[in-house]
Amino acid sequence: MSNLEPRLEYAKVAPGAYRAMAGMEGHIRNCGLEQSLIELVKLRASQINGCGYCIDMHTKDARAEGETEQRLYGLVAWEEAPYYTDRERAALLWTEALTLIAKDHAPDAVYEQVRQHFSEEELVNLTAVIVTINGWNRFAIGFRTVPGSYQRRDAASR
After folding, report:
1. Residues 135-149: pLDDT tens digits?
2. For the chain, how many structural domains are there in total?
3. How many other CB atoms are there within 10 angstroms of residue 62's CB atom?
């Protein structure tokens, strides 16, 4: 069992690093990808990485944006579930390929499948979402951000 006490408050210790990550979030929020797709990608990467804090956060955010419980619960087995669109499936496939990049280095077959559903710009922005959530997962896991402590801010203030 892991220690449930945070190791340090990284945003206070290195505010420049935190601002850089927040800058990526700002780009992602305004990049044109569907918010529901972004939340599914963030949640799936967080599941793969075992980031309790980020799973809690992105489940809350997705629900607040209208995501169904069925789709959130089924995300761990998305390949078997009939309630994700082809575009979402492609995004989840890319999420897994990049999150687990050491496994098979994002093979051409996966890339070709994904690019059928995303323009080049969308594919770069989707990759930015995946890169950013994997970074946040490493901050939250590495410094032991406590799961359950996330409080969603009003969408207008984000």
Report:
1. 999 999 999 999 988
2. 1
3. 22
